[in-house]
Every structure is written in C-alpha cells, then in structure tokens.
Design the sequence.
C-alpha cells in the first residue's frame, strides 16, 4: 500500500449511464451526435474546475475524476494542466463490479497513467454472500496489480440497503443513513480488507457524526494500514446534506478531503441543456459551487 496523506479536493464527473439516461434521456447507445454533446458537457465541467483554480482553489490539492469513454480529452487536458487525475476502472451502472475493459484494463490504465485508479462498488455485508465474494476476488486482483505501480487505488464504497434493512427503518433513507449504515460501512471495509483489497484512499458516503468518522478511519487504518486515508463522496445529494457531511469529516484525522460531483454541476448542466443559461454562466456556476465546497472543508479542517 502506498497510501495518501495530502489534502484532496476532487470534482468527479466520470458518470456515464446517468449522463445518458438522466441528463440526455438516452435509453440505448448514444448516437455520434449525442456522444459529442456529452463530451462537450464534460469539457464544460472541466472548464468550471479550471476556473475554480483561477479563483484560488489550490492546484496542488485539487483534481478531477473523469472517464475515458466521454472524457479522454479532458483527462489529457488535466495531465497537461498538472492537476490530480483519477479515472474509473469499473463498468458503469452495474450492480456487480466488473472491469470496464475486462482483461484489457491494464492497457487503459497504462495509457492514461492516472494518479488514482478508481472503482465504484456496491457492497452490503448483509447482502448476497456469493455476490460479495465474487466482487472481492476481482477487486483483490486489481489491488494486487496496482500495488507495485505508481497509480494509487481509490475505492468508492456504496452500501445500499437490503430489503430487510429498508423495512427495519420504515423505508426512511435518513434513518438508514444514521442508524444502520455507519456500522455496515465498518463491516464492509473490514471484509474487503480481509479478502486482500487494499485501497490507498477510501471514497465513502457521508456520515453525520464525527465519532462515526473517527471509527471508520480506525478501521481503514487497522493492521498497520496507517498510510490509508478517507474522502467523502457527495452521492448527488443536496448541498445542505453534503455540507453537513463535510463539516463532520473535515476535522477528523485520516479524512483528507472530498469527491463531490453532481451537487456542484448538475443544476448548471440541466439549465445549459434547457437553454436557460449560457455555457459561460454554467462554467461560472460550477466554479462557484466547487470553490464553496473547498471553503467548507478548509474552514472546518483541523
């Protein structure tokens, strides 16, 4: 494990399926024209990120998470700009983790040489045991491949509620997030570690209480994993929710930053798509929202 101990403020826009379905309303494979629009939206987000750097967000601490499918040029631009680059390895929109490029995954990582290779995994320790075992085995192989390489391993952990867990909290997502998810996250991290999955950075759903954040860091760093760290993901939630999560985590040693995407850029892209704002206004909006998130974190950081 290489680990990572520097502040890290990521703007993720590696979304593929959600861009196609939710933003563009595309049910199947995008046409060449539709794909070009998606690529342009990603350039718009990147322009907003660069504008935020111009407004004072520290370049050495900020980065982007973008996909190869629609964001290859953005990824190359990030390399040229000298900002942190993270790229996803997972196939988009799958309930079960699979590598985007299958056995050819290594060629794509080598070509772009991102600072972080990211995976998104849905893993509930009370969920399907066989599913969890299959995912763990694939992830351990990727972890072992990355271990001797300069590319760090970023693990985005989502813990979706099982049907029984949903029933137990009366179908209320807020209760699940506060009453059940913190302990489920701990167990998920522990099980994955036991199966040989060794991320340098865990990208996790927000927690409301600083004590839950501290407990999670203790699990992430158990067994001599002192170099591992945690960042908070946004989950496309409201700005108010995300701000509470950042405030809870920022002062906890071991949490080094965040990766918040849709909360920062979704509304601007919808307005741009609908012709309600110009591209320049969208860029300004994205820059402002990302800068605000950085200010929230730095204000509360220990």
Sequence:
């Amino acid at each position: 494990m290489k680990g990572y101990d520097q502040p890290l403020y990521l703007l993720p826009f590696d979304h593929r399926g959600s861009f196609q379905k939710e933003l563009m309303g595309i049910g199947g494979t995008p046409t060449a024209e539709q794909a070009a629009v998606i690529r342009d939206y990603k350039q718009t987000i990147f322009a907003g990120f660069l504008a935020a750097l111009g407004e004072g967000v520290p370049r050495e601490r900020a980065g982007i998470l973008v996909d190869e499918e629609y964001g290859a040029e953005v990824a190359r631009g990030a390399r040229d700009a000298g900002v942190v680059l993270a790229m996803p390895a997972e196939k988009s929109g799958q309930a079960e983790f699979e590598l985007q490029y299958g056995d050819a995954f290594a060629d794509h990582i080598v070509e772009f040489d991102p600072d972080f290779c990211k995976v998104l995994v849905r893993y509930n320790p009370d969920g399907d045991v066989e599913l969890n075992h299959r995912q763990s085995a694939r992830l351990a192989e990727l972890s072992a491949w990355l271990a001797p390489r300069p590319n760090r391993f970023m693990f985005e952990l989502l813990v979706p509620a099982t049907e029984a867990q949903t029933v137990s909290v009366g179908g209320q997502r807020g209760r699940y997030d506060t009453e059940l998810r913190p302990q489920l996250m701990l167990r998920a991290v522990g099980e994955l570690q036991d199966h040989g999955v060794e991320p340098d950075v865990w990208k996790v759903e927000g927690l409301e209480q600083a004590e839950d954040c501290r407990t999670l860091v203790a699990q992430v760093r158990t067994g001599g994993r002192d170099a591992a760290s945690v960042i908070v993901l946004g989950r496309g939630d409201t700005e108010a929710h995300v701000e509470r999560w950042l405030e809870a985590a920022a002062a906890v040693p071991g949490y080094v930053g965040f990766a918040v995407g849709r909360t920062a850029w979704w509304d601007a892209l919808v307005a741009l798509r609908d012709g309600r704002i110009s591209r320049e206004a969208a860029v300004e909006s994205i820059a402002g929202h990302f800068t605000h998130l950085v200010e929230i974190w730095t204000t509360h950081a220990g």
